[in-house]
Design a protein that fits this description.
The complex is a heterodimer of chains A (199) and B (99). Chain A is mainly β and 199 residues long. In chain A, 5% of the residues lie in helices and 29% in strands. Classes of the chains: A mainly beta (199), B mainly beta (99). Chain A binds chain B through residues 31-37, 79-81, 115, 144, 159, 179, 181-184, 195-196, and chain B through 1, 3, 12-13, 15, 55, 57-60, 62, 64, 69, 71, 74, 76, 78-79, 81, 83, 85.
Chain lengths: 199, 99
């Protein structure tokens, strides 16, 4: 029987075109954390957008969850090399939250309970690319995955999707966050494998 | 990724004691610094690095003060470099052989 070689090119890995370079697919949902998991009381939860002029726009839990929500189904890519396909979320689009915010900022610094921060260009939060997510697979978002609410910005490595999100500062100048000041890439595009500074 | 691996696989919310820093830091320091006395830049308390709470289930190692919880040290290992952040550590007192 003739064996037809597939050659050295064009061989599809498991995950095919959905898997960025250097990643492997996982079916479970690994939990990574740089500190203790906070237990956040919904009555005291607020999400605050602060502009470069100091103007604050805040939403309580009741206000946030009463806004029109979306149900994105997205692939996740962690810088520790695992990817998870087809995750289902519910959250409020940053397009909606930032619609009435007047700002000339080009950068955003995301802040979380416990002091974690991460930075990204403001445009990466807009045009249907980012959400404040509070449900995962039809359930309320568990604390170990960032509940009650986390940023979801799945086109960048997952460290940008800050758990336990409390606010976003809109800035005229870029301000590197927690991992970005410790050797990780300032932007973190998984498709360009931007893991570390200089990648 | 190539961040320093933790000796055990703790539950995500767990931490190890700072003794687990000995291996990863041996790449950076010529002495075992887990016995060195570190002073927290947050609460100013001090103690051996072996007392720190080490979170290793992360893109890097994050060592927190056992008294106030502030990050005292971060260590990220890329394939070619180690990034050591000590801005949460006011000082490290390292015992050396008398000269």
């Amino acid at each position: 029987m003739a064996v037809i070689s597939r050659g050295f090119h064009g061989r599809r890995r498991a995950g095919g075109d959905k898997l960025p370079p250097g990643q492997y697919e996982t079916r479970d949902f690994p939990v990574l954390s740089a500190g203790p998991t906070p237990r956040i009381d919904l009555d005291s939860w607020t999400f605050t957008v602060t502009t470069e002029a100091g103007a604050a726009h805040a939403w309580s839990w009741r206000e946030m969850t009463a806004l029109p929500s979306e149900q994105p189904v997205v692939d996740l890519h962690c810088v520790t090399k695992w990817s998870k396909f087809g995750t289902r979320w519910r959250g409020v689009s940053l397009d909606l939250l930032l619609a009435d915010v007047e700002s000339a900022a080009e950068f955003a610094l995301v802040r979380s309970r416990g002091g974690y921060t991460t930075n990204l260009p403001l445009e990466d939060l807009l045009d249907g690319k980012a959400w404040i997510a509070f449900e995962y697979e039809g359930e309320e978002l568990a604390p170990q995955h960032g509940g009650p609410a986390r940023l979801l910005v799945p086109h960048l490595y997952l460290w940008k999707s800050a758990k336990w999100v409390e606010g976003i500062d809109l800035l005229l100048d870029d301000e590197p966050g927690f991992w970005e000041t410790a050797g990780y890439n300032n932007y973190g595009d998984p498709w360009r494998e931007q893991r570390y500074q200089g990648d | 990724m190539n961040a320093p691996s933790s000796p055990a696989s703790p539950a995500p919310d767990d931490y190890q004691d700072g003794n687990a820093l000995a291996g990863p830091l041996a790449e950076v320091f010529a002495v075992d610094v887990t016995a060195a006395v570190g002073t927290c830049a947050g609460c100013r308390r001090n103690g051996p690095l072996a007392r720190l709470r080490l979170y290793g289930h992360a893109p890097g190692l994050v060592a927190r003060c056992p008294d106030c919880g502030q990050v005292m040290m971060r260590l990220v290992r890329s394939p070619t470099e180690a990034w050591l952040d000590l801005h949460g550590t006011l000082s490290l007192r390292i015992a050396l052989p008398e000269v």
